[in-house]
Amino acid sequence: KVLIDVPRSDLAEELAQSETKIQVLQDTLQQVLDRREEERQSRQLLELYLEALKTEDSILSKAAEPETAPRKEMDVVDTGTSSTDTSATTVLSNQVLAALKEKPAPELCLDSQDLERVLKEDAAALASALGWDKQKAGALQEACDQELSKRLKQVQTLHSLRSTSKGKKTLP
């Protein structure tokens, strides 16, 4: 990188070579750097693809396994106020609420459906159900939103890679 950045005339003088040879040298070095960067990006994309495959396989295997103890999908937690006041009632399950309270990064422990439920929840009701202030509950919802967005991008990338790989013909 340093040799590429040095002015051609200075490098030619220092190496006792013509500027044409120095230009060829700098061009070659730039091509090597470009190739390395492309390889690095390719490795990162491949790692992302493999991670997405693992995630998808994990999701498919969980869906194929029968649950030993069926859990209630939606428990309504009453926070002690009037039953007509829906702002204080949450539709999150006790399991999700426990994860939100106990885990240091609960957004990483929840599945995508639970993340969506947390996002749909009113911040005041969520704060009340967790015994937190509204600001902390809002920060939790923001973290859940970011995690869900990240997961959706990974799925989109996976679909893009699959559609690209389906378009390629296999060699004999």
Automatic annotation (TrEMBL):
Name of the coding gene: Dffa
The ranges of region (Disordered) come to 61-88
Q: InterPro entries this protein is in?
A: DFF-C (IPR027296), DNA_fragmentation_mid_dom (IPR015121)
Name by which UniProt lists this protein: DFFA factor
Q: Which organism is it from?
A: Pardalotus punctatus (spotted pardalote)
Q: Does the keyword Methyltransferase apply?
A: no
Which parts form a coiled-coil structure per UniProt?
A: 8-42
The highest taxon in the source lineage is Eukaryota
Extent of Basic and acidic residues compositional bias = 61-75
Return the Pfam families for the record: DFF-C
> What sequence ranges are listed for the domain DNA fragmentation factor 45kDa middle?
2-118
Q: Which UniProt keywords apply?
A: Coiled coil
Q: Where is the composition biased (Low complexity)?
A: 77-88
Gene3D superfamilies for the chain: C-terminal domain of DFF45/ICAD (DFF-C domain) (1.10.1490.10)
